[in-house]
Amino acid sequence: MSLMIHNTLTNSKEEFVTIEPGKVKMYVCGVTVYDDIHMGHARSMIVFDTVARYLRYLGYDVTHVTNFTDVDDKIITRAAKEGIEPLELSKRYIDRYFEDASKLGINRADIYPKASECIPDIINMVQRIIDNGFAYVTSDGSVYFSVDKVEDYGRLTNQKLENMSNQGRQVLNDEEKRNPMDFAVWKAAKPGECFWDSPWGKGRPGWHIECSAMIDKYLGEQIDIHGGGNDLIFPHHENEILQTEAVTGKPLSNYWMHNGMLQVKGHGMSKEEKMSKSLGNFFTVKDVAEKFDTQTIRFYFLNTHYMSPLVYGEDMLEEARNANARLVNNYRELKSYVRNAPEGDADADDCCDLIEGYRQAFRDAMDDDFNTRQAIEVLFQIARATNKAMAEKTLSKKAAERHIALIDEFNGILNILPQDDGADDETLDNVLNILIDLRGELRKKKMYDLADMIRDRLKESGIALEDSSDGAKWKRI
């Protein structure tokens, strides 16, 4: 089965074929850095982190670019309230972005361009749009893209221009706009705002133009994948297409991927609405990460297909933690099991076939438009089978090691299991076994208070003891 991707442009799954064999150019719209990132941002970040991980797993040379919008009305307004320069404010939140991204287990993109650092490239693209007859300059020095110059505006949303509205977007110099849907690619500076010199006067970039200019600068005229939340389809991504194609005459991206919104219910709302700062219904990654670990948060997002809407709630994160704990415990028990497991024959046909069957099932799930929910189900299948085999002592040491290696292989893509946490530390295992033996001796001597104290103190430290016919075993909780 080849990798199939749902393409927003065609509203269908398509076989993934790269522009250049073996290489993937992927651009994902980032955040406007005027505040801490919230869980809605986290979903998009984790989705496209997983996409990049899987593409690299398949052997592709991936160049992943995610931008920062560090010049924007919201940044200017908040900076003015705090009495600091806009770029000082945006730098603060870029630094916090990376702190929060680490809490989400995100691999860094290859390039993180900033709008403020691409001004010459943006000005050059605006001039080319004007030269090609797709934009006009107003009296104050703003530049607008003329939507009347194109015939197929609305390709991603499958709408006609006459049926669209500007959806309340803020506009500049409204009386000089030739069409209400025309959008600014360059905004004339207002008094007190940050600005850059341009052929049209002092000003700053429009929102949409920065992504077109960054893609052209870092990835070239055409890319393989353009990603972002589905709230960006219109107007942002529609306008990116117009701007870029007005300059290059080529399709901007072969595949458009959009994740579903994270929704919130409550706060007096009668129905779910998307999580956003403007609605005031957001939960920051920083706050959520104080209660839930990286693997729980990633499991919560990846246990739903990326295109589906997802409702946020701490109860759902608790469910994710409990479900993922079954995988974590199985992984740790496998690591503990191999120390005393029978050698056996891990090269037997049935074991090899089983391992390859799991690998193929995982690949089939991910090849089906990155179906991480089904991929996670494969890990649960492994857990159920190996738990049974360990209980029956029919799992050989080498077979257990092969299953651990397979889980590590899958976790390199999903990152929903803890890594290098000391769970397989032989010293820890030996110390806990000493305490288990001591507890057993105390129970034999009917010194139950002391035996129970060992059990309770270990539980307080995150270690549970489970008594069985084969003696007590420990696991993390």
Verbal overview:
The protein is of the alpha/beta class. It is elongated, with a radius of gyration of 27 Å. The strands form five sheets. The protein has a four-stranded parallel β-sheet with strand order 4-3-9-10, sandwiched between helices. The protein has a four-stranded antiparallel β-sheet with strand order 5-6-7-8. Mean pLDDT is 90; it is low at 167-173. 45% of the residues lie in helices and 15% in strands. The protein has 14 helices and 15 strands. The protein has three domains: 4-274, HUPs (Rossmann fold); 325-414, Four Helix Bundle (Hemerythrin (Met), subunit A) (Up-down Bundle), CATH 1.20.120; 426-476, no CATH class.
* Derived structural class: alpha/beta
Shape: elongated
For the record, the CATH class of the largest domain is: Alpha Beta
Helix content: 40-55%
Instruction: Please summarize the sheet with the most strands.
Output: 4 strands, parallel
Distance from N terminus to C terminus (CA atoms, Å) equals: 39 Å
> Would you tell me the overall average pLDDT?
90
Strand content: 5-15%
Order of helices and strands: EEEHEHHHEEEEHEHEEEHHEHHHHHHEE
Task: Considering the chains and any ligands shown, give keywords for the structure.
Four Helix Bundle (Hemerythrin (Met), subunit A), 4-stranded antiparallel β-sheet, 3 domains, alpha/beta, elongated
